[in-house]
Structure formats: C-alpha cells, structure tokens
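Dear support,

We are seeing what looks like truncated structure output for some complexes. This example has two components. We would appreciate it if you could run it in full and send us the complete token output so we can diff it against ours.
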Amino acid sequence: MAQDMTLHWSSGSPPCWRVLIALEEKNLKGYNQKLLSMEKGEHKGKETLDINPRGQVPAFKHGNNVVNESIAACLYLESQFKSSGNKLIPDSAQEQALTYQRALEALNLQQRLADLAQYTMRVPEAERHDSAVKRNREALAAELQIWEGYLQKGGPYLAGKNFSMADVVFFPLIAIILRFGLSQEKHPSLTRYYNQVKDRPSVKATWPPHWVNNPPGMDMLKDL
Amino acid sequence: MAQDMTLHWSSGSPPCWRVLIALEEKNLKGYNQKLLSMEKGEHKGKETLDINPRGQVPAFKHGNNVVNESIAACLYLESQFKSSGNKLIPDSAQEQALTYQRALEALNLQQRLADLAQYTMRVPEAERHDSAVKRNREALAAELQIWEGYLQKGGPYLAGKNFSMADVVFFPLIAIILRFGLSQEKHPSLTRYYNQVKDRPSVKATWPPHWVNNPPGMDMLKDL
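Here is the complete output from our reference environment:
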C-alpha cells in the first residue's frame, strides 16, 4: 500500500519516532524502511544524504516528494491521507487550535532536552561550565512543569479527549525523558499520560527496538 | 470581519511578523491588536499573560481559541479560512511537501540566529567564550548557504512558483538577517528573494513600524 514511501530512521530518536507513529496512525503499511545506527554514522551515508542532504534522520520520501522535518512529514501524511486511518488534526476550531498549539509548542521541550542532553557534544570541553549544566537542568525542569500542568488540568490527551498530532509530536519526548529517569512521583500527570499512550497500537508497533530488551537503568534526570 | 481575533505583537519579531503576514494573506482585517514594547517588558503584563502564560509574543486568540506558537497560528488561520484570501498550503502533493518541509526547516535558521543574537542575553558573562561566538557565527553562515542554494536552484519562492506558508515563516528571518548587515554580494539569491518578497502587499502592510524611519546601519553580520 505504501510501497512508494521510504523512511530512514534511528531507534529512539524522537523525530523519527513521530513519523513512524504517524504512518501507523494513517494505516500506511509496507513502506520501505532502513534502520540506521547513529553510532556508526550511517545517517551520513550516501543513500541517506540523497534524501536528506543535512545527513539527519528522519529522511522521508513519498514518490519524489521529500519531507525530512518530522513535523512537516507528519502534517504532510495527515493532509495527503485524510480519510485513511485515524484523523490527527480535528476539524472543530477549538480542538484544532489546541492541536496545532501543543504540537508546535512541544518544540520548546525538545530544545530544552537537546540543550541538556547534547551539551557535551555541542560545547568543546574547554568551554564547559557546571553552572551551564545546572541552568539547562533547571530550564528543562521548568518546561516539564508546564506540561505537567497542562495534563493535570486537561487531558487525557494533549488536545483533549482524542489522540491527535499533538501527541504524535510530544509522546516520543516524554518517553525518552522518563527513560532517562525523570521522577514519576513529581510528575504524576505526565506519568499517567505516558502509561496511557504507551499501550496505543501505533506506539507499541513502533517502540524503539533497542529499548525492548534494554531497560532504562539511567537516572540522569531523576532529581528533576 | 475579524473582530473576534486579538493579537499582541512586537515590532520586528520574526514570529510576530509571521502571524501579521498570514492575517493579511487570508484577508482578515479589523482584528484587535496591541503593539508591545519588549524593552519595557510589556509582554510580561497581565493582559498578555492571560493569552500566553509563557509571557511571549505573539499572543493570539480567535474567539476563545488560543494559538500562540507562530507556525501553529499560521497553520490554524490557513485551515480555518481556507477559501479566504490567498491559499498558503498548496493542494498538489509535490508543492505541499516542499511547503511543509521548508516552513518547518526554517526553524533551523531561526535557532542558529537565536544562538548568535541572544548569546549575551542567555549566557552569563563569566561563562562566555569568544570561541563560542565564532562557532555560532560559522553555524549561521553555513545555514544561510543552505538557503542560498535552495533559492539558487529553485524559486522564485521557497516552495516554487507561488508564495506559500514556507515564505510566511522564512521571510521575516531573512529580512532581519539582512537588516543586521548580511553581505548581499555573497548571498545574491537570498537578496533577490528578499527584494521580491518585500514589496508584496501583505509584507509591506506589516513592515515593522520601528524599521520604517530607522535604517539598518548595523553590520553585525556583514562578514558572514
């Protein structure tokens, strides 16, 4: 059915996971896929660069149409396959507003997570400061409180009673943050949300393969 | 016509400018608006916080529907007012793919610009390094070359022959970068693009008021 699609992805990458979930939700099966090892630098290989010249995953192609930015790919799939699978962007103005808002707002959380997780990769050793790490941790903690508040007041999903594009974008982030050891006690609404969404068929079917037999055991974020 | 809309904005902010352009393109006139001074901290006032609890602009409301993230607000306006004004997301799969891709990909340029422009605001003096500023400048220069290449090969607009959502998102960024003194000689395609889009009615009508009688005279980016 989706043999004219190709996805290059890596296990556990939130942007890749979004596209995998969107494909499942839209009931698009049988696409060509290539699971790449970032550690081995496979995302810098010619075949991936041909789709995504930035040498990043996801690298996604439908026919000759390339859409590599994860949110762009999800919006494209929803728009091109409106009547297939589950509707990810509701029609009603109220729900639609909240869906777009939370889907794009999730990039704040993504940036805070990247600032912290990629600090040692992005900043040369001679420039690193413990005070910067502390500030990045505090910024991530504050951002998480905003989302804890949203789910405490609203829910069960981010844009209300139905799973939507907002959850497609957000869930992979909170999944990885909990895997890094975020305190469940201090984030009861995020934890409830995580436990509910993780059993959704599209999410189970796309669970990062290297997570399956490899429990977290990481406590990098436990005091957040 | 759009009396049920409220926009709080500040002059020259790329995210705010996007929403202003989208409202013009969709022919939505007569909305309530409030031009805020960031220098005076007016975006932290109660009236703005009531719409956007992050204390950021744009703060946008349509009836009771709040959509503050700039790209989210633009997508919402396009979706809710499909048949009004100009179409910002083309129907054809090929053009639509490129529109979504470039609109979201522009956030890379936004981040590189923010990393450089906000370095002294975000990083305490004791942690600042000239080497980090140099790296941020190089990252912005490399990102700009990517966009120069897109417009050299394609165009005249970012997603092809028609103005689209990709331009709504991208133009305010290149406008501010050129205002900061980016070399036009080294970026002929970006300059041609800028000169073409700046005269578009929606862009002229929303030109940052504090830019009108205040020519750039800034050369922060001239050697990029």
